[in-house]
Design goal:
The complex is a heterodimer of chains A (about 1000) and B (about 300). In chain A, the strands form 7 sheets. In chain A, strands 25, 26, 27, 28, 29, 30, 31, 32, 33 and 34 form a 10-stranded mixed sheet that branches. Chain A has a 7-stranded mixed sheet with strand order 6-5-17-16-15-7-8, with helices on one face. Chain A is of the alpha/beta class. The N and C termini of chain A lie far apart (about 85 Å). Chain A is globular and about 80 Å long. Chain A folds into 6 domains: about 25 residues, no CATH class; about 140 residues, Single Sheet (N-terminal domain of TfIIb), CATH 2.20.25.90; about 200 residues, Rossmann fold (3-Layer(aba) Sandwich); about 210 residues, Dimethylsulfoxide Reductase, domain 2; about 70 residues, no CATH class; about 200 residues, Barwin-like endoglucanases, CATH 2.40.40.20. Chain A contains 27 helices and 34 strands. In chain A, helix 4 packs parallel to helix 19, helix 7 crosses helix 12 and helix 7 runs parallel beside helix 14. Chain B has 16 helices and no strands. Chain B is globular, with a radius of gyration of 20 Å. The longest helix of chain B is centred in the last third of the chain and has 33 residues. Chain B has about 300 residues and is an all-alpha fold. Chain B folds into 2 domains: about 170 residues, TorD-like (Orthogonal Bundle); about 120 residues. Helices cover about 70% and strands about 0% of the residues of chain B. Classes of the chains: A alpha/beta (about 1000), B mainly alpha (about 300). The interface between A and B is large, with 37 and 41 residues.
């Protein structure tokens, strides 16, 4: 036995140091502080967050100490919800800076540029600080400041009237990235309106559909951290979904030696880090994926046992091949037959990617086994007609390898996400809103949001009150000038309320502009799938929390926010009370305190209830540090509910749940046992009870009842009876759909325009008022290959005219080999504009070009009067603006392209690129909205209406996800001729 | 005996710059009062930098092939190599993790695999240099770090008893270049002398200072190679004599480890013996030349 110098044995020293660590950690302190190689601790130790001392760099060489109180919150820019630490000056109560929160399980203390730039948004000299009401006509640009009381009363009266006059569908809430889980859907449910509208169909619903048809869950959660091969159909390392939390794990895996495959027509920053970069012709991605699948199937390089156990092959055989022998061997033979046409040669011809590259990728993927993490988000799924099949074909690779919820594999997001039960949970309203869920798109995963102005023009309905919430459809959506026409029409939109921290092209044409808080000025709860685990993140008004730490009592977040900026949580409670002041509508009860019945619910009580009652493990964890759960969340900003989830579908079902159990033909097990209340409200598909009313509880696999997937069959649905029965039998299996920009669909001389990519340091309208981000990125030239530029003798910087179906825009060219020949690309992230003030308020100084916008009938012309320029404000940096460019708003020239199955807007455009003509100027945009109506009608004809294709007289398969889910009776199609 | 992984992490943490919170760690390990940051900087920044590459690399410098090899080991065990994969604290942290992985593995075959990984890290990347390194630190002026190094040495000895050496010594030890021949230029000789895995010597700046005093030489302050060259320029006979004595001392130290470490200690001992012999040969040759010159 070894002994230390004073005779203590090494073994007992080991025990002592372990005990010391336990004791220190139990006090909530850090045992190994400071940048350490043995422990992640490169951030201020949490026990010093109340009084963190740094030297003031501006005072150098003098050593002047600067004290800060560190308060966590959650970023509100992209949807990653990374943890931030606000450094609050305890003397002035101003935020000095934002850095990463090391206690956040998703972002782990690391942030992208957009996180620290939150400070710019907070101090933005152009930000909206008080409620404003328009003066004069909509869009005239004149405003008067009003009190919150006046604004709330006006809005509440209109909503109350719509509800009491049985016009609840005339109340609509249209959200951009929500940045929170479930709060506002609950508010709408409490009002009894089916008025939730999202941006998702211009973003991710294509990919969601692909994942949902397989698993019953609509998002992927790749476990990059532990993968051997990562396969991305997006630009994840710079701007993809959950960019920062995923990118850091992708890079960790790469550093460990994992391989990275990137499919992107453009040489993105992500592609530059790939072991294999594939730049296919846009829309051919599924052909490549199926060639890989074929390569694996035809050589037996797949997990037979996983496929046999978890694919719904029995249902497929019985339905589609009832006369064949119903064995797995038969299925394998059919599977090989089904995909044999997808040879590397076929994929190469479709995509332009070489055969040997596709074969090499096939070997790499096949070699990954269960450690294959894949991800498709936007990109090809959002660009192409049939793009939803890209995600479906990508998931097929995981499903072939058994890399589903495995370590290093792909997890369904609902199992890597946690949504706790709130204090009040009103049932979903018995309403159906045809403006968002029209019968033409019964399988659309999300609201047909971008068709709203066309539906209003068609006379399908009107809106009494329309909220745009941190959302800018005029700028973000295709066909923005049709939006502009409709939003200016007071007969179609009675009252437009913009809830926003910043000015935008949409808020200019609002009736009320109500200032809402940024990341450090509001409460929200978030949880996102970023690795195999579940966590919740807490966004909070940091100055309110800082002052409460010092003993103050704050009752209303406006007390600590700048100007009269509010937060949405309190706003919705207050508005709900004003809609139903005496409680007779049944709304108020969902916004009342339980601790003090009859009084308004406070955000304090709302989150206190959740953290004390609905988050497993949080009360115990808080108690270990001598705190209450809400105190814990206010101090640390995040909590990991479950570190490793794994293959939930394999879990055996408890015998108590199998009371009166019966199996259907394919092993779906239904029972009469009552469903226990869900602990985790993360949304999934909801398989329906059988005809006898028994609930689906699991699926029988080799004699054992297991949890399975939330699909109708409980299995992975390689074969989708839903698609088959609802009018799309040709797409019942994962297949390749030729895009609307397939070479055969293009006219001579047309090129594909890719517009679906972000700039790494921008985030649509939200990032627009961050000066650091604007300085970093403020233009969006047209990427064009030298071989395409040569015939026009184009050089970088030359002006080109890009002509779409409904108009054209004039932009600068960037001649680069980073794009495939025959394809051009322009980021949608730039091109903010405002019309000349004409007596109104000049707003959006550092962000938007000033334009002249004229309308003649349905023809619109935008001409740029000036770019951005230096100006005086309370921020001296605005006088240092050295750039003038802000990019070009190409989306205005895009018409709507709803995918007939997923409902996703198919962003890719077939365009003609020519040298700018005499008289053309940078930023010119010309659009004819009547042409956009024609394109809308053309695409609408491709839809297969539930009224003709519904197998059961309902509007939509009940099991599919829907943000607000009315009861099944409401799903029934209206009688023909009775209207909807 | 099963090692407590936290003990390894604690020892790793203590070779980081001292922080007030380290008091608890040091107290738990029965170590004396924490030194100030200057003492840490002097020892780990100026005298004996705690990176494996310096002691195992064929150039005796930071980074390079030796650091890459250790980064490769991190990858081989499924870990992402940190920014400095061969820093002593990182290696001790990794070793602690491997111990935990082994202890936490219920399946015998997998546990055996984890144990093999632990054995490989210990015998290839730690015991190949740390006995010499802890010996050198123990001989420094720092009371705190002297005790720390002694404790680390004891812990490693405990691990040697726990994990037998692999059948063959690490390939990279076997591949270490020999000392340069008698015709080598001074700069190559100096570089080889200051490359521990080639010379068997760990010479810090303080050691060179001592050598200069011993030989009555003027000390020129600079990087170690400059200092040693300056000593040779002033009086090569004296300097080689001193180096030979140092090499004898190191050979004796390595000899003490032979029973415990086997082939690893033999490599270091033999290199030190060769170094001593080489220095004596050079010294004697020079003496002869000088004698001839003065006689002539």
């Amino acid at each position: 036995m070894n002994s230390s110098k004073n005779g203590t044995s090494v073994a007992s020293l080991g025990e002592r140091v372990s005990a010391a660590r336990d004791a220190v950690t139990a006090r909530g302190e850090t045992f190994y502080p400071g940048p350490s190689r043995v422990h992640y601790a490169a951030h201020p130790p949490k026990e010093r967050w109340d009084n963190w001392v740094e030297l003031d760099s501006r005072s150098w060489p003098k050593r002047v100490e600067k004290r800060s109180m560190l308060v966590p919150t959650t970023c509100f820019n992209c949807e990653s919800a990374c943890g931030l630490l606000a450094y609050v000056d305890p003397d002035t109560f101003q935020v000095r800076k934002f850095e990463g929160n090391p206690e956040h399980p998703g972002s782990r203390g690391r942030n992208c540029a957009k996180g620290p730039a939150t400070l710019n948004q907070v101090t933005d000299p152009d930000r909206i600080l008080a409620p404003l009401k328009r003066v004069g006509a909509r869009g005239e640009g004149r405003w008067e400041q009003v009190s919150w009381d006046d604004a709330l009363d006006d809005i509440a009266v209109r909503i109350r009237r719509a509800i009491t006059e049985k016009r609840p569908n005339e109340v609509m809430y249209h959200v951009g990235r929500p940045g929170e889980d479930g709060y506002t859907e609950r508010v709408l449910a409490s009002w009894g309106v089916d008025g939730h509208n999202s941006h998702t169909n211009v973003c991710s619903s294509g990919a969601r559909a692909g994942y949902h048809f397989w698993t019953g869950i609509d998002r992927p959660s790749p476990d990059h951290d532990k993968a051997d091969v990562m396969f991305l159909i997006s630009s994840h390392l710079e701007s993809g979904h959950y960019f920062n939390p995923h990118a850091q794990r992708v890079m960790d895996a790469k550093a460990r030696g994992a391989k990275l495959i990137v499919v992107d027509t453009r040489l993105s920053n992500t592609a530059t880090h790939a072991d294999h970069w594939l730049a296919p012709h846009p829309g051919s991605e599924a052909a490549i994926l199926l060639a890989i699948a074929n390569g694996m199937i035809s050589t037996g390089r797949y997990d037979r046992e996983f496929v046999r156990r978890w694919w719904n092959w029995r249902e497929y055989l019985a339905t589609e091949h009832p006369k064949l022998e119903q064995t797995f061997e038969t299925f394998e033979r059919l599977l090989a037959e089904q995909y044999k046409e997808y040879t590397p040669e076929f994929a190469a011809a479709e995509s332009g990617v070489a055969v040997d590259v596709i074969e090499a990728i096939t070997d790499t993927v096949a070699g990954a086994g269960t450690r294959l993490s894949t991800h498709n988000w936007r990109s090809a799924a959002a660009g192409n007609l049939g793009g939803w099949q890209v995600a479906r074909c990508l998931f097929m690779l995981n499903a072939l390898l058994g890399a589903v919820s495995s370590e290093g594999g792909l997890h369904p997001n609902a199992w890597n996400k946690f949504i706790p039960r709130p204090i009040h949970n009103p049932g979903h309203p018995p309403m159906w809103n045809d403006l968002t869920w029209p019968t033409e798109y019964p399988l659309a995963l999300n609201e047909m949001s971008f068709l709203l102005p066309h539906f209003l023009k068609d006379g399908r309905g009107t809106l009494e009150v329309y909220f745009t919430r941190v959302y800018n459809p005029v700028w973000t959506n295709p066909d923005g000038l049709t939006w502009s026409e409709v939003l200016r029409d007071e007969e179609k939109v009675g009252l437009h309320v913009a809830l926003t921290p910043t000015w935008s092209e949409t808020s200019y044409i609002a009736d009320y502009v109500l200032p809402m808080g940024l990341a450090p000025e509001r409460h929200d709860l978030t949880s996102y799938e970023q690795y195999d685990g579940q966590w919740i993140g807490f966004r909070q008004p940091v100055l309110r929390t800082a002052r409460e730490r010092l003993g103050e009592k704050i009752a209303d977040t406006r007390e600590t926010n700048p100007g009269e900026v509010w937060e949405e949580n309190e706003f919705w409670i207050e508005l709900s009370w004003r809609i139903d002041p005496d409680g007779t509508l049944g709304i108020r009860q969902h916004h009342e305190s339980r601790e003090k019945p009859g009084e308004k619910l406070t955000v304090e009580e709302y989150y206190k209830f959740i953290f004390e009652n609905s988050v497993p493990g949080l009360p115990e964890k808080a108690a270990e540090e001598g705190m209450l759960p809400l105190e814990y969340m206010r101090r640390y900003g995040a909590f990991e509910v479950l570190p490793q989830v794994g293959q939930l579908f394999e879990h055996e079902i408890d015998a108590t749940m199998l009371e009166g159990a019966v199996d259907d033909l394919f092993g779906r097990v239904y029972s009469t046992a009552a469903k226990p209340p869900a602990v985790n409200l993360a949304p999934t598909g909801t398989p329906v009870p059988d005809d006898a009313g028994r609930n689906p509880v699991g699926v029988r696999i080799d004699g054992t009842v297991r949890r399975g997937f939330p699909t109708p069959s409980g299995m992975l649905e390689f074969y989708s009876p839903t698609l088959s029965q609802w009018g799309w039998p040709e797409y019942a299996l994962p297949t390749y759909i030729r895009s609307h920009v397939h070479p055969e669909a293009m006219e001579q001389g047309q090129k594909v325009l890719i517009s679906t990519f972000r700039l790494p340091t921008q985030i649509h309208t939200r990032g627009a008022n961050a000066k650091w981000l604007n300085e970093l990125a403020h233009t969006n030239p047209l990427w064009i290959h030298p071989t395409d530029a040569a015939p026009m003798t184009l050089r970088s910087g030359d002006l080109v005219r890009v002509t779409t179906e409904i108009g054209y825009f004039v932009v600068k060219a960037w001649v680069t080999e980073g794009i495939r020949p025959g394809v051009v690309a322009c980021s949608h992230h730039m091109g903010r504009w405002k019309t000349a003030p004409a007596g109104g308020t000049d707003i959006g100084g550092q962000t938007a070009a000033t334009v002249d916008l004229t309308r003649t009938g349905t023809s619109w012309k935008m001409s740029r009067l000036s770019g951005v320029k230096p100006y005086s404000s309370n921020d001296p940096d605005t006088s240092r603006i050295w750039w003038t460019d802000v990019g070009v708003h190409q989306n205005l020239t895009f018409s709507v392209h709803p995918d007939p199955v997923s409902g996703q807007h198919c962003w890719h455009q077939a365009v003609r690129v020519t040298r700018a003509e005499p008289g053309d100027a940078y930023g010119d945009i010309v659009v004819d909205t009547e042409k956009s109506r024609e394109v809308y009608r053309h695409w609408l004809e491709m839809a297969r209406d539930a009224r003709e294709h519904s197998p059961d007289g309902t509007r939509r398969p009940y099991w599919l996800m829907r943000p607000l889910k009315p009861s099944r009776e409401v799903y029934r199609l209206p009688e023909q001729g009775s209207g909807s | 005996m099963t090692i407590e992984p936290e003990l390894l992490r604690a020892l790793g943490a203590l070779c980081e710059p001292p922080d007030p919170a380290h008091r608890v760690v040091a107290a738990a390990l029965d170590l004396p009062s924490l030194p100030d940051v200057a003492e840490h900087t002097d020892l780990f920044g100026m005298q004996l930098v705690p990176y494996a590459a310096v002691y195992l690399g064929p150039e005796g410098m930071l980074g390079g092939e030796a650091a890459s090899r250790i980064a490769g080991f991190w990858r081989a065990v499924g870990m992402t190599p940190p920014a400095e994969p061969d820093h002593l604290a990182a290696l001790l942290g990794l070793y602690a993790m491997l111990v935990e992985a082994e202890q936490g593995e219920p399946e015998p075959a997998r546990r055996a695999l984890r144990r093999e990984a632990r054995r490989a890290l210990l015998w290839e990347h730690m015991l190949t240099w740390l006995p010499a390194y802890t010996t050198a630190v123990s001989g420094s002026d720092s009371v705190f770090y002297g005790d720390w190094a002694a404790l680390l040495g004891q812990v490693l000895a405990g691990e040697v008893a726990e994990l037998d050496p692999p059948a063959t010594p690490a390939q990279h030890l076997r591949a270490v270049p020999e000392l340069p021949g008698p015709d080598a230029e001074t700069k190559d000789l100096v570089r080889a002398t200051l490359t521990p895995v080639r010379s068997g010597l760990v010479l810090s700046r303080r050691d060179l200072l001592r050598g200069a005093h011993t030989g009555g030489l003027g000390l020129r302050v600079g990087e170690r190679a400059f200092m040693l060259r300056a000593m040779l320029d002033q009086d090569a006979v004296v300097t080689f004599g001193w180096l030979a004595t140092e090499a004898d001392r190191w050979a004796a130290r390595h000899q003490d480890d032979v029973d415990l470490l086997g082939a690893v200690a033999i490599h270091w001992r033999d290199r030190a013996i060769a170094m001593a012999a080489d220095c004596r040969t050079r010294r004697d040759s020079l003496r002869e030349v000088l004698a001839d010159t003065s006689a002539g």
